[in-house]
Amino acid sequence: MDMESALKTGATALFGEKYGDRVRVMQFGDFSIELCGGTHVQRVGDIGQFKIIEESAIASGIRRIVGVAGAAAVAWIQTMEDRLRQVAGILKVAPDSVDERVRQLLERNRTLEKDLDEVKARMAAASGDVLSAKAVEINGVKVLAASLENTDAAAMRKLIDQLRNQLGSSVVVLASAESGTVRVAAGVSKDLITRIQAGNLVNFVAQQVGGKGGGRPDFAQAGGSQPENMENALASVAPWVKDNTG
Fold first, then answer.
1. What was the pLDDT predicted at 12?
2. Three-state DSSP class for residue 67
C-alpha cells in the first residue's frame, strides 16, 4: 500500500529505514503492525535452524542481536562443537566437563600468583638488609639508589617502605628492568619532604631512561623505555640529593 495509508493503520516504521511511496506492511495477529524491515518468509519453519551468535550495545538503550539461520546456523554450531572438542582434548576431559576444568585451572592460577607474590615479597624483604648497607650519607641524609632484578611495582613499594624504616631520615630510589622497560620508584622520609619531593626526584631519574612519572611527596613511581641508561640514572641520584639538601 502507499505510505500514507500504511501509517494510518498504525504501522510502526523500524530500523531507521528510508521508505519509498509504496511499502510492505506486515501484521502479526492483533499485536503488531509494522512496515517490512527486510527479509521475510511465509512461515517461521522456513527459517530452519536459528542461532544468536552476538549481542552488544550500540547506543544508549539500544542493543544489537546478530544471528545466523538455516545452513549457516548449522555450520556455525558444528564449528563451535569442533572447537569445544579440541579444547576438551587439550584439557584432557570430556566436552561436558570443560567448564569445571577451566574453573579449576583459573583457581589454581590465582593460588600460584598469590604464592609468587608472597615469594617476591620475602625475597625483597631479605634483600632490604643487604641494600641498606649500601646507603651513603649526604648532608645528614641517608641516600640509597639501587637496581633490582625482575621486581614488580608492589614489591618495590614494600621494599622502599622497609628501607625507609631501617635508614631513618633517607631518600631511596629503586629501579628494575624487564623486557625492555624500566620501573622506577622513589621514597622520601616524611621529615625531608619539605626539601625533597619524591615526584621531582622520580621524574629526574625517569627522564634519563626515556620516561616520566609522579606520585605523593613521600613516594612516587615512574616508567621508562631505555634500560641501557638505568645504571647511569641511578648514579645521578646522590649528586641530585646533594644539590637539593646543601
1. 84
2. strand
